Each structure stands twice: as C-alpha cells, then as structure tokens.
Amino acid sequence: MLLHGKIGGSSVNGPGNRIVLHFQGCDLGCVGCWNPDTHLFRGDKLVNMPDLEDWILDQKGITGITFSGGEPMQQAQFFWYITEFIKRQRPEWSLILFTGYSIKELERGAFKWYRETDAEWQQGSAKLWKEISGNLDLVVAGRYNESKRTNELPLRGSTNQELVFLTDRIKEGDLSPQEVEMTFDPETGLVQITGFPVGWEEYDMTKDRKPATVEAPPLKAMAEGDDDDDGMLVGAGG
C-alpha cells in the first residue's frame, strides 16, 4: 500500500475526531488539485501493513477514519483490506471515502486499480465496489472541477461533487462548514495542512500548477523515489 501521509486526529475531514489516511498515487488529473504531491505512484511511499494497523489502533479518542488521496480506489485491493480491518477492530467508527470517481463509475466498475502481486493495472468491477462500499458510511464522489470551485458546501471542493450516504451513521446535518487545519507530525517532521483551502489565498499552492500526468510503473521496478518533500504535507478532501 502506497501512503502519502497519515493524521492521528482531524476535525475538518468529517464529523468527530478522525484519523485521515492520504493514499499516494492518482492519475485522474484534476486541474487545480490541492494535492499534486500525491499524484505519482512512488515506491518510497510503500508502507508495512502490520505497522499501519498498529498505528491505527494506537490512536486515542477517535470516532472515525477518512480516506483521501491520491486516489484510494486506484489501490482498491489494499483499500478493501484496510476497511475490513477497521470494521473488525473498530466497528463503532464511521468510514468516509473521498474519491475522484463518480458513483455511477464505481457502481458499474469503471475504475482501475493497481495489483502489486503481478505488477499490473486491473479493471475494477461492480462486485469489488460493492464489497468496499459495504464497509463505508459516506462517499464524497466526483472529480474536482476548478470552474465549479466552492467554499460553501461541506466536504466538497466543487459543486459537481456528490455526497452519498450509505448508512444512517452520518447525516448531512453532522457535517461542518469547510475549514483548514495545520498540525505537526513529530514522526515525519512534516507540517500538515488538511481540510479545504478554498478562499485561503495565502495558502493557494495550486496557482499556476498543472496536474501531473502519471502512470504507475510496476512496484517491483520502482526506484526508491526522489526524497523531494519540502517539509509540508498538503491534504484536502476530494
């Protein structure tokens, strides 16, 4: 599993105090994406699953977990696994997915995901989405559209994006207005900005930046990757 970063407690990525996992890798290419550093499928972002599981269970006072990106559905095998783990170990938590795919695309299996075992892209399926979505409570779906940018809709960066409530664990009234958090991760030394930066011109890191055009090479052939992090992890839903 390729992971860009993790946050042990956030209040701007869904209701309550939430863990946030930012997946590494996305080739959807949304212009103006707030997370361009998460686009490349970088081998140096490979995480050990038992270590990640231990870290998740060690977090205190958590009410849910949010999966963002990158694009979690482009690592569907690992994403399914970690949702299964959480539902077994922390059944009281709510699970939220931010995805650039639309619900219609997911429901008909019109997504792709990378399988590490044979180093190939795999076609998604309606069955796989059904298994994953059975573990989720809320999906924020749809590609970010810069021309429809908004700072008024909870958990959505553009007006075309859709809230899909899969259970009654989370209701629209539970969602807060858009906000931004800044936290320091002592494990990595990164200052983490997460949430929704719309209207924060002083933090407009996407200005004049184009989305990366990327394709995942086989993980076994990946280089360790350039350690070009600049000391800041940016992460926003969608």
Lay out the secondary structure.
Layout: E1 3-10, E2 18-23, H1 49-58, E3 64-68, H2 76-89, E4 94-99, H3 103-107, E5 112-115, E6 120-123, H4 126-133, E7 138-141, E8 162-165, E9 180-185, E10 190-195, E11 232-236
Parallel strand pairs: 2-3, 3-4, 4-7, 10-11
Antiparallel strand pairs: 1-2, 5-6, 7-8, 9-10
**Secondary-structure element string:** EEHEHEHEEHEEEEE
Read across the widest sheet, the strand sequence of neighbours is 1-2-3-4-7-8
Distance between the termini: 20 Å
Q: What level of helicity do the residues show?
A: 10-25%
Count of separate structural domains? 1
Strand content: 15-25%
Number of helices: 4
Q: Tell me the CATH architecture.
A: Alpha-Beta Barrel
Over the alpha carbons, how many angstroms does the gyration radius reach? 16 Å
Task: Give the overall form.
Answer: globular
Mean pLDDT: 82
Number of separate strands:
11
- The oligomeric state of the chains shown is single chain
Uncertain segments of ≥5 residues (pLDDT<50)?
199-238
Q: How would you classify the helix and strand content by structural class? A: alpha/beta
Largest sheet: 6 strands, mixed
Q: Please name the CATH topology.
A: TIM Barrel
Give the class-level CATH name: Alpha Beta
